[in-house]
Design a protein that fits this description.
globular; 3-stranded antiparallel β-sheet; binds succinic acid; alpha+beta
Amino acid sequence: MTSFRIEPVTPTVGAEISDIDLARPLDEKVFAELMEAWHRHHVLFFRDQDMDPASLQRLGRRLGPLHVHPQGDVEGYEGILAIHTDRNSTTYSGSKWHADVTCDREPPTASVLYLATVPDSGGDTLFVNVHAAYDALSEPMKRFLEGLTAIHAGASRYGGYFGTRPEETRDGAFPEAVHPVIAVNPATGRKMIYVNEIFTERIVELEDAESRLVLEFLWSHIAQPRFQCRFRWRADSVAMWDNRATQHLAIWDYWPQTRSGYRVTVKGPPPPPV
Ligand code: SIN
């Protein structure tokens, strides 16, 4: 028995949690139960949460030290990023499968997204379990991938797609990092596929053409519906994902309506190789 209700969305990924108020400080027992549910389901969804940047920041700090996005914070709120799309938007966050900010040397371990305003319909977010995707690979393919590393770069996303200039970023330059292609989630010890379509540019040890083919295979493998769940937002919902165990994809099918809220990300050590 837990202090709140847990309803799995699929057997593979995602659970809806009810009878909990995230805007209030969680006591040790409830927090421990929440962490247990989170590591079992990888992304948790909550409805009817009365959050604002301050309470979201407090919840983020409970999960660990806050991570500052390369494009900066909402003024006055360290670690908080505005997620906002309206009729004037030309780009949006999450347009391809990805984990958040893997171009950082220490990519976030966790992200929590709160949406206050949502369109009448649409604007769903899809999540995929990259442990399950790894488990489904053949043993020879797992052996081939283990030991490889890949370059993750922020330039095309932040510079090309969002039009941010390097001098406007957190470090005055776009982040870049090398991570293992197959990594271990320190929270659970499970192996996972750790390349994604937004940030991963190239597998270091392969020729360009080989790298492209292997990455394209992994991206299409990850995107299979059997590893996924889909979250339909309502106003005042929260999604809290393990940014190692999952990747996500946001759908922009609601123009010209507004979808708006805040995301907090939590720092962690780089995911270790197998
Ligand atoms: C993101 O964190 O990539 C945005 C996700 C979303 O807006 O659903």
